[in-house]
Design brief:
alpha+beta; two-stranded antiparallel ribbon; single chain; 244 residues; 2 domains; 10 strands; 7 helices; 6-stranded antiparallel beta barrel
Length: 244
């Protein structure tokens, strides 16, 4: 197992540091296990909070990096929370604030309870779909991804978890468009055969998911979900500085 973050910094915790609401899907998917064929149909009624997976993982990390929740204080009005949300998501998603400079969110003990009570405000203020589409890291997926690169990425992510908690990764299959998605890694377990990363998936807010890296093939794989047929894909870490 990955060791705790150093210097007293607590690790990112699924049960505290994630949103209770989901990034909703424009399309619904059905996977035929016999043929492997995928059929799609539009969600009805149309979703009101979609195309925001990268917005949600970025925002979750911004709250982890820049906010402090204080349930001992009384709850505030909508205007106060709206201003606090805007300040949090306006800060750097790549570098945490010192403890003394963190914004205090009154009335709640963590992001999970805050997002359950203040979902409409968070959905309105964290960002729109365009912020998921236009990321400076998206350039990387159009270039070849070699197995050696994925081996290095697996090791990079293992080092990142204790050193700078909540690494965000981009899952893709470009030029195929079957998946183009962002998740936050929250922990990892190693064996001689593989590395299993536990993760927060904004499409599945109820429980953690798992991203697997197989050492022999130097390949990442993501299990079947309600929006992905399951199987191998490529992974890069994003929101970490420089071109990413």
């Amino acid at each position: 197992m990955i060791s705790p973050a150093p210097s007293g910094a607590r690790p990112f915790q699924f049960e505290r540091d994630t949103f209770t609401f989901a990034n909703e899907l424009v399309w619904q998917y059905r996977f035929d296990p016999a043929t492997g064929r995928t059929t799609t149909f539009r969600t009805s009624p149309p979703p009101t909070h979609s195309h925001r997976c990268f917005v949600m993982v970025r925002s979750a990390r911004q709250f982890f990096y820049h906010a402090r929740f204080d349930s001992a204080q009384p709850t505030a009005d909508a205007a106060t929370y709206r201003n606090l949300i805007r300040q949090v998501v306006g800060r750097n998603p790549r570098r945490p604030s010192p403890a003394a400079m963190r914004l205090v969110v009154p009335g709640y003990d963590c992001l999970r309870t805050f997002s359950q009570a203040q979902a409409p405000l968070l959905k309105a203020e964290c960002g729109g779909p365009w912020q998921s589409y236009f990321l400076r890291s998206h350039w990387r997926m159009v270039f070849p991804v070699w197995r050696g690169h994925q081996e290095q990425m697996a090791q990079q992510l293992l080092r990142a978890l204790p050193a700078r908690p909540a690494p965000i990764v981009h899952l893709f299959r470009f030029p195929h468009i079957t998946i183009n998605h962002g998740i936050i890694l929250v922990g990892a377990t190693e064996s001689d055969r593989d590395i299993r990363f536990d993760a927060y998936d904004p499409n599945i807010p109820a429980h953690p998911v798992q991203l697997q890296y197989e050492r022999a093939t130097r390949t990442f794989a993501f299990p079947r979900t309600h929006y992905w047929a399951g199987g191998p894909l490529n992974v890069i870490e994003i929101f970490r500085g420089g071109l990413y």
